[in-house]
Specification:
There is one protein chain. With about 500 residues, the protein is an alpha/beta fold. It folds into 2 domains: about 180 residues, Rossmann fold (3-Layer(aba) Sandwich), CATH 3.40.50.720; about 190 residues, Dihydrodipicolinate Reductase, domain 2. The strands form 5 sheets. Strands 13-12-11-7-10-9-8-14-15 form a 9-stranded mixed sheet. A 6-stranded parallel sheet has the order 3-2-1-4-5-6, sandwiched between helices. Strands 16-21 form a two-stranded antiparallel sheet. β12 and β13 form a beta hairpin. α10 runs antiparallel to α13. The radius of gyration is 23 Å and the shape is globular. The N terminus is likely disordered. The chain binds nicotinamide-adenine-dinucleotide. Nicotinamide-adenine-dinucleotide binds next to α3 and α9.
Length: about 500
């Protein structure tokens, strides 16, 4: 079945189910282009709406918000109250079953570990998808969503809103115009985590509130007893659900680096951190990625580049020429591009780029200016046909490969006890130099105590496991509890 036929069938099916709703598919309106007129409204469903999802939905509430699914009905009550006409669900699968034919597009803002499931199910139903960052929890899931989005020709956007902003465009224009010369080193940092990290797994079990479906929250991760420490919000610091400070912020902070330097797969990665525990991300991380040379551009070469990431409040050394007193942390982090001609600095989301020399380049503008919000630009793309669609600023064709880099950083941190530079085969999604018999452990509990005035160390370690197998499991999770992803196209 061709992509266009399947899209038309979907629209026709939607027409029957959407009686009484505002969306009238273009096939009914008799449009020769087959697109949805901009004035027609999309039917949007939101999954994971209690936190960031509420803000994202507000950014698209000029459309019809017809369904909301959230595992925590107490946390989500303000959202449910705000959209009284939307049908409410705990389980997104039930919502897809019941409202599937009426839904045009889906907004996903659950915890990181369920983005791929919720999104893959939507895409295979032919729905457009807006997915919060990080796109997925693993490299494999990113690859899968990238390929599914391509196969189903739907409109996609990752929620790294800086990609629609002026800062990222300016960083790219300056680099591509040769304003800072060749870049062989970039340093990046964030002040996160601002949530609890570096903790052992809780030893106490809390009563699950009647308003929370804990099993649905855990989803494809290994089952664990409930504790209030995990959700809402603080799941970020727990490896099974989140990706620590790097996964949380790198989709914002590394985006101008990825785009401005045309990065592809890294060839090497190494990392270190404060105490590495089994379950919870460390308080501070330092990761070094090496990217091989890319094709030179007209005005600038793209040689091998090292990209350094610091989090937990650590920052790279201040480059020469940066004025004393100037805080390089702009909106949660910063980026320093070391070029052969100049040093370019910007904040998180690519905001406020400036050159240490003080020059203000007047480079030609090379990219589409996004005049709508990040959310509404996606709504626009949803209404265009695949053949005529102008891509959003962060479509999965770009966000998928980019997110692979982000979550690879987490692997570097979790494999740091191998004490080696890890070599990465991007196309095949595997490390190539982990010895076959290498074993790896992490700390379950620190056990540090002062005994008779002396420090006493009593680290409880996890059992050693085969490092290759552990790496593989982190690259592609074995889903638990009966959950499955569609197969890779
Ligand atoms: N772009 C940004 O600036 C930005 C800002 C904050 C958060 N985020 C991203 O948004 C996502 C959500 O983060 P948050 O801060 O809102 O977290 P949160 O815990 O505050 O909200 C997540 C919501 O999803 C619900 N949920 C979790 N699993 C679910 C499931 N399987 N099905 C349905 N609902 C589920 C939770 O109950 C909660 O209401 C994360 O991926 C995060 O990285 C992006």
């Amino acid at each position: 079945m061709s992509k266009k036929i399947s899209r038309r069938r979907f629209l026709q099916a939607g027409a029957t189910a959407a009686v009484g709703l505002t969306v009238v598919p273009s096939s009914v309106l008799g449009s020769s282009l087959g697109h949805v007129a901009p004035s027609d409204k999309l039917n949007i469903a939101g999954i994971g709406v209690g936190g960031r999802g509420f803000g994202v939905l507000k950014g698209m509430e000029s459309q019809n918000i017809i369904g909301l699914a959230d595992v925590d009905w107490k946390y989500s009550k303000p959202v449910f109250d705000h959209y009284p006409n939307a049908k409410k669900y705990y389980d997104y699968r039930k919502m897809y079953d019941e409202l599937g034919k009426s839904i045009d597009a889906v907004m996903v803002a659950t915890s990181d570990h369920t983005h791929a499931l919720v999104t893959a199910d939507a895409i295979t139903m032919g729905k457009h998808v807006y997915v919060e960052k990080p796109l997925t929890h693993t490299v494999y899931e990113s690859r899968l969503l990238t390929k599914l989005a391509d196969k189903y020709d739907i409109a996609t956007q990752m929620g790294n809103q800086g990609s629609s902003g002026e800062g990222v465009r300016q960083v790219c224009d300056w680099i591509w115009n040769g304003e800072i010369g060749e870049v062989t080193k970039v340093e990046t940092f964030t002040d996160r985590p601002i949530w609890p990290q570096g903790l052992p797994r809780p030893s106490t079990v809390d009563k699950v509130p009647s308003t929370l479906d804990w099993d649905l929250f855990v989803g494809p991760a290994p089952k664990r007893p409930f504790n209030h420490i995990y959700t809402p919000w603080n799941w970020r610091g727990w490896w099974d659900f989140g990706t620590g400070a790097l996964g949380d912020m790198a989709c914002h902070i590394l985006h101008p680096v990825f785009k401005g330097l045309n990065l592809g797969y890294p060839s090497k990665i190494q990392a270190s951190s404060t105490m590495l525990l089994t379950d919870c991300a460390p308080n501070a991380e330092f990761v070094t990625y090496t990217f091989p040379a890319r094709d030179n551009m007209k005005k600038v070469a793209m040689p091998e580049v090292e990209v350094l990431w610091y989090d937990g409040g650590l920052q790279p050394p201040r480059p020469a020429g940066v004025p004393n007193g100037k805080n390089l942390n702009d909106q949660g982090g910063g980026v320093i591009f070391h070029g052969t001609k100049d040093t370019l600095i910007c904040g998180c989301y690519g905001v406020n780029p400036w050159l240490v020399s003080g020059r203000k380049p007047n480079s030609p503008k090379t990219q589409r200016e996004v005049t709508l919000s990040h959310q509404m630009d996606w709504v626009r793309a949803c209404k265009e046909t695949p053949a005529n669609r102008i891509e959003t600023a962060s479509p999965f064709s770009e966000a998928g490969p980019f997110n692979e880099i982000v979550v690879l950083g987490v692997l570097g941190v979790r494999l740091q006890n191998l004490n080696q530079v890890l070599e990465w085969d991007g196309p095949n999604m595997k490390f190539t130099n982990i010895p076959e018999d290498a074993k790896i452990q992490a700390i379950i509990e620190d056990g540090f105590k002062i005994v008779d005035g002396h420090p006493s160390f009593n680290k409880k370690m996890s059992d050693p496991v085969n490092a290759r197998e552990m790496a593989q499991e982190m690259i592609k999770h074995t889903y638990q509890n009966g959950w499955n992803l569609p197969s890779m196209p």
